Amino acid sequence: MKSAKTNFGTNARRHAQRGDNADLLTLATAVRAARARAGLTQAQLALVSGVGRDTVIALENARLGVSLGHALRVMKGLGLTLEPVAVKR
User: Fold this and answer.
1) Which of 62, 63, 59 is nearest to 72 (CA)?
2) CB of 42 within 8 A of CB of 56?
């Protein structure tokens, strides 16, 4: 009989893992700070934005995979906007 394996260390607290992309980390910091200033929980922000709480968590942790549409909905829910990016020619 095989012993049961645990997922400790491999999948434990996967939701808390942070990405390492500098641009996404900047966005994550801005979203988390704006949410804190607004006095919202992640669940409340998700409800206001029309996305799932998992999306808010992923965005605040700078994880890849959050669609641009969902990110923009969260930002709109917080009153955040994107700054124009200068295009180099």
Assistant:
1) 59
2) yes
DSSP state, residue 51: S
Q: How many other C-beta atoms lie within 10 A of the C-beta of residue 16? A: 8
In a domain, 52, yes or no: yes
Residues 29-49: pLDDT tens digits? 999 999 999 999 999 999 999
pTM of the complete model beyond 0.85:
no
Residue 28 is assigned to a structural domain of this protein: yes
Cα within 13 Å of Cα(79), Cβ side: 7
Residue 58 sits in which domain range? 16-78
